[in-house]
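Purpose: get a first structural picture of the assembly so the mutagenesis plan has something to point at.
Setup: three entries, given in the order below. No constraints added.
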Amino acid sequence: MAGGRVYPSNNDTTDGVPNNLSVLLQNQRLHPLFIPGSSPSPSPSFLGTRSMVSFEDSLKTNRPKRSIFKMFDEQENGYDEYLDERFHQPEKKRRLTVDQIQFLEKSFEVDNKLEPERKIQLAKDLGLQPRQVAIWFQNRRARWKTKQLEKDYDTLLAKYNSLKADYDDLLKEKDKLKEEVLQLTDKLQTKENEQRNSEFSDVKPLLLQEPSQKPIVVSMAGRKQEDIDSDNIPQYYSDEFHSSLLEAADSSYPFEPDQSDLSQDEEDSLHPPASSSNFGFPVEDHPIWSWTY
DNA sequence: TTGTGTTTTATTGCCTCC
DNA sequence: GGAGGCAATAAAACACAA
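Result (structure tokens, whole complex):
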């Protein structure tokens, strides 16, 4: 295997097969009060028939192959005996016992990284190969990372939901305010229209009367100067009558709007320039016509 | 019992660090 | 270049419904 790992044999040899094998064959259970590191030679009772990696499997892989053969080469008792014993009862992948897992979990809580010394010690304490301990920590770190990611995801999701709720509330508030502005604008418009209408309705009846009535006052508003000039207007109205009309018109003007309440445009519409309207009654320039029948 | 999904143990290959 | 970590993956063990 390119870049394949060469696994150290010294550590494995420390708790090597002879030890593990004897432990394995003992098939003891963990003492419930067993505390890691409490004894210089802790009971290897974690090991059961289910706690050992299959040596048959080990021989199939690159990693244990190097140590298994080397280790047995170094031992007085050859491995033929061992192979006979083991390979006729092939061990498959075994799960760790509950006690072993609890032990490892506690150790993981203390520190999720595994220094070589601790690995050796744990392996000894648990009656496992250091490699198994290392693998367990590796897998445990992977599980922890996955859990952590799930936690982070949940946290982010909760934050997102909270922010979204706030955002939705703000949107509703915004729509509500928008609606309120529309209503108020509408009201204001209506009020202005009513105001304008009332101004005209108060002024017009006084200025515009039926022809049968006397005197008839014709508003000159909107009439061009040339029209006025070209009219065949009787010139016999008296100054006295003229004055009385002016008085009537002035007194009938319903109100003088508060200048401060109106914009210039509104003012202009309510009080058109004297040159274009007779409301200001610059009488000399725009005489009020009257007929007496 | 069996099919299927999940969990656990172990391997592989790549990477970084010393 | 060796040691060890990690991601991806294989495969065994296990859980469980039908």
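The first helix of chain A runs from residue 10 to 14.
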